[in-house]
Design goal:
heterodimer, A: 110 residues, 1 helix, 4% helix, B: 114 residues, mainly beta, 4-stranded antiparallel beta sheet, 0% helix
């Protein structure tokens, strides 16, 4: 199976805004959207947003997800040191009958 | 509170077998499909298999077809992954996840090495 496309790394300054992207096609991101996960080194992934772009309980409003066509985006405002982590997108592919993941984006907060 | 607790990981030689388990609580287990997702050390996430709430249909990633088998026991609120003919490249943390990947367990480490 092929995966979703994410930039390997993004760097932004403290208190600035970072927008992470996730590209797929009409069978996955463009069909039912993508969810976003945050993973700190040595910890399991944590869900930041669901495929409908809503946030789980307890997730900061600084994290917001959106979608335009076959590309999903995660915007993180007011960057904090604890936001430095790996971010993954995931989507169900209705043609491959499989869950797909992006390769992950490593966010560095300068 | 939804909880997913994996167990059964460990070290095994190439060609060996392991059975992973996932104990679920905090939701009506039989109402949800379940998945196994893995992550090799220092690498990204990789979907392994899905099973529907009733036990079928079942789907597998190409790299585990014929070697891994997913199953569930709704009476015990448990999910399983039988892994046979293990290879070095199967070394990874294995995570149990609910339905649309909305909840994740802490993971269990499988190490395949001679």
């Amino acid at each position: 199976q092929t995966g979703l496309t994410q930039p390997p790394s993004v760097s932004r300054a403290l208190r600035q805004t970072a927008t992470l992207t996730c590209s797929g096609n009409h069978n996955n991101v463009g069909d039912q959207g993508a969810s976003w996960l945050q993973q700190h080194q040595g910890h399991p992934p944590k869900v930041l947003s669901y495929r409908n772009n809503s946030r789980p309980s307890g997730i900061s409003v600084r994290f917001s997800a959106s979608r335009s066509g076959n590309t999903a985006s995660l915007t993180i405002t007011g960057l904090q040191p604890e936001d430095e982590a790996d971010y993954y997108c995931s989507a169900w592919d209705s043609d491959l009958i499989a869950w797909l993941f992006g390769g992950g984006t490593k966010l560095t907060v300068l | 509170e939804v909880q997913l607790v994996e167990s059964g990981g460990g070290s095994v030689q190439p060609g060996g077998s392991l059975r992973l388990s996932c104990a679920a609580s905090g939701f009506t287990f039989s109402h949800y499909g379940m998945n196994w997702v893995r992550q090799a050390p220092g690498k990204g996430l990789e979907w392994v298999s899905h099973i529907s709430g009733s036990g079928g249909p079942i789907y597998y990633a190409d790299f585990v077809k014929g070697r891994f088998s997913i199953s569930r026991d709704n009476a015990k609120n448990s999910l399983y992954l039988q892994m046979n003919n293990l290879r070095d490249e199967d070394t990874a943390f294995y995570y149990c996840t609910r339905g649309t990947l909305d909840y994740w367990g802490q993971g269990t480490l499988v190490t395949v090495s001679s």
